[in-house]
Design a protein that fits this description.
Blueprint (H helix, E strand, L loop, with lengths): L3 H8 L3 E5 L4 H11 L5 E6 L2 H10 L6 E5 L5 H8 L4 E4 L6 H6 L1 H21 L4 E7 L8 H14 L7 E7 L1 E2 L6 H10 L4 E3 L5 E5 L1 H14 L5 E4 L3 E3 H13 L6 E3 L11 E3 L1 H4 L3 E2 L3 E4 L11 E2 L6 E2 L8 H10 L19
Parallel strand pairs: 1-2, 1-4, 2-3, 4-5, 5-6, 6-10, 7-9, 8-12
Antiparallel strand pairs: 9-11, 10-15, 13-17, 14-15, 14-16
Helix pairs in contact: 2-9, 4-6, 6-7, 8-10, 10-12
The structure holds NADP nicotinamide-adenine-dinucleotide phosphate (NAP).
């Protein structure tokens, strides 16, 4: 665990750029960053409506600024990068079906966009770039994961320059935009059965605040070329539906229907592959996968076995744990049963 002083020492007084700052992760990191008195935070994304909403929300915070732009456009990214000291790169296409249907769009945003961010950061002499990746980039079977795997390599490529490039990787963020939770909630609130792709499917789960903590950890502790992976529990998709239904309705039993896996979906996800374990270093809450140019002699104990870190073999969230996460995230009522404050956003 980092203490606040450590985070403050890195963030306070810094000029910060958040690509994808209007997204689920972007919004959460914005809220956290504000606490540590950065000199400025620039939100970089395409859609003016999302920026407008955020601008209204943070009208009282003078440090936050907005820039419309597309990571595919090098000139604009270079402009956004001017004078920045820390960059959190979260702009991405992250929906599996969308990327399956338009693979080259994923290439442009997740690969070309990442390369633009990398080059512009070097040109602008940025100190640190932290890039957000996903378990779907490990042994990828879908276009989204493949494009994020290349994005990781782009960010981790060996390079002698003043800019530090660090990646983080995590699993499903409970309740993020486009995730399964809003869909399940919608169905349950309408009294409809929960659609289950496959009863054996498991997914790593973490909250948005844990995702931000991981990014702060990597920002403070990381060295260039690092990939930091957070250890996290997983959940069976049937259990997630049942826990959510229980939290929303108080019912022990709720109907579900099997709809089959979608193109590009895996049964289980992997956060650290067996091959990455060869050079990974294990810490109590994390794995560090050093860049391939690094020697394997990094502080910490050597991973004692070479088994991949899979959502099928880690601890599963209990009902109480998942309800606590869903409550924290505002999906279900703070006490008792019923919808939480987040549902108001979906009216
Ligand atoms: N959510 C998860 O479960 C999860 C899990 C693991 C990793 N991640 C990773 O975390 C990062 C953030 O995900 P998220 O959940 O916050 O996604 P999100 O809610 O969909 O937000 C994506 C953000 O990127 C912006 N964006 C998309 N394309 C862009 C482009 N071409 N140029 C500039 N901005 C662009 C979007 O705004 P505009 O549309 O207005 O441009 C939005 O601000 C992604 O890299 C994702 O792969 C997410």
């Amino acid at each position: 665990m980092l203490d606040e002083k450590e985070i403050r020492s890195v963030i306070s007084g810094k000029r910060i750029l958040v690509t994808g700052g209007t997204g689920s992760f972007g919004h959460e990191i914005l809220r956290e960053l504000i606490k540590y008195d950065p000199a400025s935070i620039t939100v970089f994304s395409r859609d003016e409506k999302k920026q407008h909403d955020l601008r209204l929300l943070y009208a009282h915070i003078r440090q936050i600024g907005f820039m419309i732009g597309d990571v595919r456009d090098y000139a604009r990214v270079r402009e956004a990068m001017r004078g920045q000291q820390i960059v959190f790169h979260a702009a991405a296409l992250k929906q599996v079906p969308a990327c399956e249907n338009a693979p080259y769009e994923a290439v442009l945003t997740n690969i070309v966009g990442a390369e633009n961010v990398r080059r512009a950061a070097i040109d602008a002499d940025v100190h640190t770039v932290v890039s957000v990746s996903t378990d779907k980039a490990v042994k990828p079977v879908n276009v989204m994961g493949m494009s994020k795997a290349i994005q990781e390599r782009i960010m981790q490529q060996p390079l002698d320059c003043g800019t530090k490039f660090i990646c983080v990787r995590y699993g499903n963020v409970l309740g993020s935009r486009g995730s399964i939770v809003p869909l399940f909630v919608e169905r349950i609130m309408a009294g409809l059965p929960i659609p289950i792709t496959h009863p054996g499917m498991t997914r790593f789960q973490l909250s948005l605040s844990e995702a931000v903590k991981l990014v702060f950890w990597a920002t403070v502790r990381g060295t260039s070329g690092d990939m930091w992976v957070k250890k996290m529990p997983s959940i069976n998709i049937v259990d997630l539906g049942a826990h959510l239904a229980y939290g929303l309705t108080g019912k022990e039993e709720y109907p579900s229907t099997i709809i089959g896996t979608r193109p590009g979906e895996k049964l289980h996800e992997v956060l650290v592959s067996e091959e990455e374990m060869w050079r990974a270093v294990e810490y109590p809450g994390h794995f560090l996968i050093p860049s391939w140019r690094e020697s394997f002699e990094v502080n910490g104990s050597v991973v004692p076995n070479l088994t991949e870190y899979s959502s099928a073999s880690v601890d599963f969230l209990t009902r109480e744990q998942s309800l606590a996460m869903l409550r924290d995230d505002g999906w279900i009522a703070e006490s008792g049963y019923g919808p939480g404050p987040k549902l108001a956003l979906y009216d």
